[in-house]
Amino acid sequence: MSDTRFRAWDGECMMTNLDSVTLSELNAGVIYDGDGPEDCATVTIMQFTGFKDKNGKEICQKDIFAMGTERYVVNKRSGCFMADNIRNGHSLTHAREDVRVWHTLMESSLLIEVLGNIYENPELMDKT
Question: Residues in domain YopX protein (predicted)?
Fold first, then answer.
């Protein structure tokens, strides 16, 4: 079973050392390196998938990775992680019939290299 870890993007920097993520009916916040809580209305929270790439880098939501000549962005919809092909939009999901494909893909981490993420490297979302 993988660790449940998160990182956050505040519009300017990626916060990777989150001390805690707090959710309640009234508000949400993150504590980063002992500072905070920072209002989650101003940050985007991304969850660690439980997998690492060929260089040992953690793969999180909104990361962009290469596998062969294709690039994928990691998303989470309806509680399931997905790898969406940037060029053609085809999704590999962590749900139902594709669950074996997703796990095979992610467990074959020697084939995957994280290139960046959609916030710090938006140019990687170019379909060409």
Answer: 6-126
